[in-house]
Amino acid sequence: xxxxxxxxxEAIFAEYGHPREGLAPAQLxxxxxxxxxxxxxxxxxxxxPPGSRSKGGWTTKRSEQGLVRRLLHAxxxxxxxxVVMGGHSAAAGEGNHFRQSYMMQFHKVMAxxxxxxxxxxxxxxxxxxxxxxxxxxxxxxxxxxxx
Length: 147
Description:
Elements: H1 2-15, H2 25-31, E1 37-40, E2 57-60, H3 61-77, E3 80-85, H4 89-92, H5 102-116, E4 120-125, H6 134-137, H7 140-144
Parallel strand pairs: 1-2, 3-4
Helix pairs in contact: 1-5
């Protein structure tokens, strides 16, 4: 599994223009920030941590714990794991072929890892250009699914 995860990370680095070849040791260490998540306690913060947009992102401790529970459940029961992305035209992949959208590329890289763990990955791209996402929030359980 470790080799499969390493290959997936390398595929993501290459997709974002940071392949291993030709990078100095300091550059190799710097590119790992792409996978670093800040974990914040929203009791003490009211906005994302500074610099989080230049890294892998941020999440709350509670959200991370929920994700871990869902992943463990899927692995222990050989269940499905669903990832849904909503958003605007960039999320939808507007201007590209459907298979070039973020979610389809995510699926291509991650599905073999999930399969190795006995989990079927289901990926949904529900991005829409030009409309925003506020109106979708009203019916998100029906639109995005409850899984």
